[in-house]
Amino acid sequence: MSRIYLIAGLGADTRVYNNINLNDEHEVTTIDWVEPDLNDTLVTYAQRLIYQYNIKPNSVLIGNSLGGVIAVEMAKFIPVEKVILISSIKTSDEAPRYFSLFRTLPVYKLIPGKIFNSMGGMAKPLFGNMSREDAWLFGDMLKKSSPVFMKWAMYAILHWKNDIIPPNLYHITGDKDLVFNYKRIKDATIVKGGTHIMIFDKAKEINKLLKGILKK
User: Fold this and answer.
1) Which residue in 64, 110, 124, 140 has its CB near the most CB atoms, within 10 A?
2) Three-state DSSP class for 100?
C-alpha cells in the first residue's frame, strides 16, 4: 500500500480528482490549498503544505497543473517514492513563452481578486471541451477559490525558477494542452487529444497510466 497525496491546480480544488480511481489498496489524502503568506514562494509554500499535512518520506505525490509544480518542490525537500505530474511542468524551462510576457506586463495585478472567481467562462476555451457537468464543476471550483491565493499563485508560478528534476518523476501531458505546450515538455507520456483538463474527460486513460506507474 502506498501513501498518496493528491494536489489540485490553480483555481481548482481536490474535486478535480473526482474521476480518478486509485483503488482501495492505497491510502489517499487530498491536499486543500491553505492561505499563503504574501512573502511565500512556491518553495516555502510547498514546505508549508508538507508540515500542514504531515507528509512523510516515501509517499507518492500526484499533482495536476500548479499542483504538479508544488509536488516537484515537495520532492526536493523530502524523499518520496514517486512524483506524478498531470498537465503540468517540472522545470521553469518547460514553462510557456507567454509567462515572460506576463512577467513584463503583469496585467493580472490590476484585476481585483474576486474577478478571477467569475472568469470561468473566459477560461473555458483555453482548457478544452467539457461536458455540462464538468463545466459546472470547474466554474464552482473557481468561484470557491480564495482570491488572495489566486493572485499570489499567479505571481508565484510566473516567477518560479527550477532546473532540478526529482528522481522517480513521471510526467503525463496532452498534445492539445493550450496552457502547457507538450512540445516544450521533455520525457513525458503524451495523451493523444488530451487538453489541460484531460483529468476530467480522459480519466479512463489517465487511470490506466496511473495504475501502471504505481505498480512500478
Assistant:
1) 64
2) helix
Single-letter amino acid, residue 37: D
pLDDT tens-digit readout, 19-72: 999 877 789 999 999 999 989 999 999 999 999 999 999 999 999 999 999 999
- Cβ-based burial of 216 (10 A; exposed 0-12, middle 13-18, buried ≥19): exposed
Question: Residue 209 region, left (φ>0) first, then alpha (ψ -120 to 50), else beta?
Answer: alpha
pLDDT, tens digit, 9 for 90 and up, residues 141-172: 777 788 888 888 888 999 999 999 999 999 99
Q: Is 105 exposed, middle or buried (0-12, 13-18, 19+ CB in 10 A)?
A: exposed
Residue 113 identity: G
Q: In a 10 Å sphere around its CB, with 0-12 CB exposed, 13-18 middle and 19+ buried, how is residue 121 labelled?
A: exposed
Domains, the chain: 3-215 (3.40.50.1820)
What is the distance between the alpha carbons of residues 187 and 170, in angstroms, rounded to a whole number?
Answer: 8
Q: What is the C-alpha separation between 139 and 81, in angstroms, rounded?
A: 34
DSSP state of 90: S
- Of 107, 99, 105, nearest to 159 by C-alpha is 99
Which three cell numbers, joined as nine digits, stand for 39?
512573502
How large is the average pLDDT for residues 88-96?
A: 97
Q: How does pLDDT run across 168-180, given as a tens digit for each residue?
A: 999 999 999 999 9
